[in-house]
Write a structure and sequence with these properties.
By secondary structure, the chain is of the alpha+beta class. 42% of the residues lie in helices and 14% in strands.
Length: 296
């Protein structure tokens, strides 16, 4: 991933192989690098598994959340998720003093590789996933200062973003943001929230069907509008219509929640544009999302 920030930990295939051999020797096998994302490096292990190693300090806590909670959530979710099959321990003797995971290898291609009409095919299944996940969470569910919280907590960041010059349509986006802020806050129970439900965290089959939802590092509980933002982040107008209808057929979502969801789409898309510009695959998607928010 060319726009990924520099790593805090040195991670490579040799380290991954040594970790697997020392802690889970029964699973040792050929390792192939497949992704070097913002927070984690991924190595395919044989045909059915993958090794996921944090490459940044801030990802350590996120991996711990996945290790604790995904095995509990996975059985009730209608699509595949990377629930760890083995837990990797910190290995200071190998120069890698952080937790890591062995997860299932999930087939499919990242949704950013598909044109919007192809992504629209996944609207029904993603609505089913969101409705299945959005159940009341226990009191000790992870807290996240950036997802699932009242939109007002993101206002200072958004105002700075609008003034920063990276968003070319800032003058047209500000009224959309203020409209979202005016929507009543979520007053229901804290519901499970994926927290980062954009196309780079969705795997699709060749026909565009939803194969898996990945990267639960931002998993938290709070306002379900955060995940409903995927209506704009992932789909075009037709897919968005289907997604909304399917969500409303499965759960109770009022207009205020959809209004906040639009605000969350603006938060996430503008963050991507600010961080990466509009030339990376996800940056191109984010620029399209901002256009769609204005058009709506």
């Amino acid at each position: 991933m060319s726009d990924a920030p520099p790593p805090d930990f040195h991670v490579d295939a040799e380290l991954a192989a040594r970790l697997v051999s020392s802690q889970h020797p029964d699973l040792a096998g050929p390792l192939t690098p497949v992704a070097n994302g913002w927070d984690n490096a991924i190595f395919r292990l044989g045909d059915e598994l993958a090794v996921r190693l944090p490459r940044r300090e801030l990802a350590v806590r996120l991996v711990e959340h996945e290790q604790r909670w995904l095995p509990r959530l996975a059985p009730r979710l209608p699509v595949a998720v990377p629930a760890p099959v083995r837990i990797g321990r910190p290995a200071p003797q190998l120069g890698y003093d952080v937790p890591w995971s062995i997860v299932p290898w999930l087939p499919g291609r990242v949704a950013t590789e598909f044109a919007t009409p192809q992504r629209d095919v996944a609207a029904h299944a993603l609505a089913e996933f969101v409705a299945a996940l959005a159940r009341p969470a226990p009191p000790d569910a992870p807290r996240n200062a950036y997802r699932g919280v009242p939109l007002a907590q993101r206002d200072d960041t958004m105002r700075a973003r609008f003034a920063g010059g990276r968003l070319t349509d800032a003058s047209r986006l500000v009224p959309l943001w203020e409209r979202a802020l005016a929507a009543p806050e979520w007053s229901g129970p804290r519901l499970w929230v994926h927290g980062d439900l954009h196309p780079a965290n969705l795997l699709l089959g060749t026909s565009g069907h939803l194969a898996a939802v990945i990267d639960f590092g931002d998993l938290t509980a709070g306002d379900p509008a955060t995940d409903l933002a995927t209506a704009w982040l992932t789909f075009g107008p037709e897919g968005r219509r289907v997604f909304r209808e399917e969500v409303e057929a499965r759960t109770s979502v009022d207009d205020a929640t959809w209004g906040r969801a639009r605000g969350w789409a603006l938060v996430i898309a503008s963050a991507v544009v600010e961080a990466t510009g509009t030339t990376s695959p996800l940056g191109q998607v984010a620029a399209y999302v901002l256009e769609q928010l204005i058009a709506d």
